[in-house]
Amino acid sequence: MAKIETRCVHAGYKPGKGEPRQVPIIQSTTFKYETSDQMGRLFDLEDSGYFYTRLQNPTVDITAAQINDLEGGVGAILTSSGQAANLFACVNIAQAGDHIIAANNIYGGTFNLLGVSLAKFGIEVTFLPADSPDAAIEAAIRPNTKLIFGETLSNPGVEVFDIERWAAVAHKNGLPLVVDNTFPTPYLCRPIEWGADIVTHSTTKYIDGHGVSVGGAVVDSGRFPWEKYAGRFPGLTTPDESYHGLTYTKKFGQAAYIVKATTHLMRDLGSTQSPQNAFYLHLGLQTLHLRMKRHSESALQVARWLESRPEVAWVHYPGLESDPHHSLAQKYLPDGCSGVMAFGLKGGRDFENRVLDALKLVTIETHVADCHTCVLHPASHTHRQLSDEQLREAGIAPDLIRLSIGLEAPEDIIADLEQAFKS
Ligand SMILES: *Cc1c(COP(=O)(O)O)cnc(C)c1O
Are residues 215 and 133 in the same domain? Predict the structure, then answer.
């Protein structure tokens, strides 16, 4: 197999003679057939083919295939957002009356999705610290538990998830491990290689990389033995009446999970990625390897500088030798830790806000992980309704500033931070 840099550029799309070199945007809701029988067979899942863009579209499929190739999966789908990707990853196998276990340091949006919205759907969630010992994870597993969920690099705490350890506990208990790999992207870490069964993405972040399109992806490793635990996953292993009694594991084998996510969830929930946005993702992926390398190198340089400054109380960036997650980063992220870091300033919230206001190049944004360097102070912005106590419970220090290093010259980013500290 070609190296990942080559696959970033070429995976998913091989044009034939006289076909467009760059991926075409198939901006069409529907597709034409010759006979009634041809169309009927598509609806019975007897033939594969495009018929309606809510389910599948050629541009969207090319980008999904590209992400699938980079992650090393058996199949992938794109979704309208990262939120939709994590929703699909869970409700593809969990329903009312079921239970999920998740690390408690995950992205706030996912924390609410699982803890609030899935609870309303009748799915219970137990949140555990990501460093919980194996015995504590096992103790939380119930007969109705359907999956375990974590984030390779948590947002905004930038803690490294011990994928191999959590996968071992999950597999010993007949459960799949779902890993949100948004920050590392498959260039820096491929969770399937460490035992993850399902990988999700907010492609809105580095995969897009330029801040142009909201999107998500779900990748299926094809490795989880659904049939072995058939009683636990009836949605995959027993007949689906909405497809004339077809059983996903029997008909699609290794790809059962991801086929069901398309043919069942995408059909019914409709969280579709648009062809235009899939095209932007495809463009982003073609330079992913260059960008992630540069984001990581620049972030390490800025993190080292922050660590050396008297104004700075603490810095979390797993690439730093001093970081508590450095050894996990050496294992899972040997080629870099992405551009995202968190730090706190001495001098309280007032001083922090004055520093943010004084920044010129670095902008205040509710976003991370693209080519523009940006900052966010969760306690004053995304989480401002929470008290300091509630913030700590959510794993966010009240003084935490999330800094996302873009593709500018690191010297200019440092110069901007320095003038803001001084002013
Ligand atoms: C942003 C983000 C999400 C949500 O993605 P959207 O595309 O904003 O819906 C999920 N997980 C992580 C780790 C994120 O950073």
Answer: yes
Question: How much distance in Å is there from the Cα of 200 to the middle of ligand 1?
Answer: 10
Tell me what percent of the residues of the chain surpass a pLDDT of 90. Answer: 87
Q: Are 155 and 182 in contact (CB under 8 A)?
A: yes
Residues with CB under 6 A from ligand 1: 81-83, 107, 109-110, 151, 155, 180, 182, 202, 204-205, 214, 216
Tell whether 232 and 364 lie within a shared domain.
no
Looking at the CA of residue 182, tell me the nearest atom of ligand 1: 13
How many structural domains comprise the chain? 2
Band (pLDDT 50/70/90 cuts) for residue 63 is very high
Q: How far is the CA of 216 from the centre of ligand 1 (A)?
A: 8
Torsion sign (Cα): 4, 6, 9, 15: negative
DSSP three-state, residue 71: helix
390 and 275 part of one domain: no
Closest CA to 383 of 398, 370, 373, 372: 398
Does 27 share its domain with 43? yes
**Residue 266: CATH number of its domain:** 3.40.640.10
Alpha helices in 337-398 (DSSP H): 348-358, 388-393
Q: Residues 94, 52: one domain?
A: yes
Query: What's the pLDDT tens digit per position in 203-225?
Result: 999 999 999 999 999 999 999 99
